[in-house]
Amino acid sequence: MLKRDEAAHGSFARAADDEPLFVLRAQDVTAPAVIRMWCEINFFNPNCAPERLKEARLLALAMEQWPNRKLPD
Question: In terms of residue numbers, what domain contains 59?
């Protein structure tokens, strides 16, 4: 999901104001691997919709195409 969409409609919009969050950015070369691991962990989770897993995998692919990737700060 793109930043503009996530802020308005995604997990950020649904999170409580004081809820801790962890953000992965496309510039982080480790982010796609983390997303794929999340997909593996949730593959058999009956509460995780297959569409959400597909979206996450596509996001990992898109992140790999992002220019100026680097190790996290």
Answer: 27-65
Q: Would residue 59 count as lying in a domain?
A: yes
Are 13 and 7 spatial neighbours (Cβ–Cβ below 8 Å)? Answer: yes
Query: Tens of pLDDT along 18-54?
Result: 999 888 999 999 999 999 999 999 999 999 999 999 9
Burial of residue 49 (number of CB atoms within 10 Å: 0-12, 13-18, 19+): exposed
What is the spatial distance between Cα 55 and Cα 64, in angstroms, rounded to a whole number? 14
Residue 1 has what pLDDT? 67
Beta partners for residue 17, in sequence order:
none
Has residue 6 been placed in a domain?
Answer: no
How many domains does the chain contain in total? Answer: 1
Distance of CA 72 to the CA centre of its chain: 15
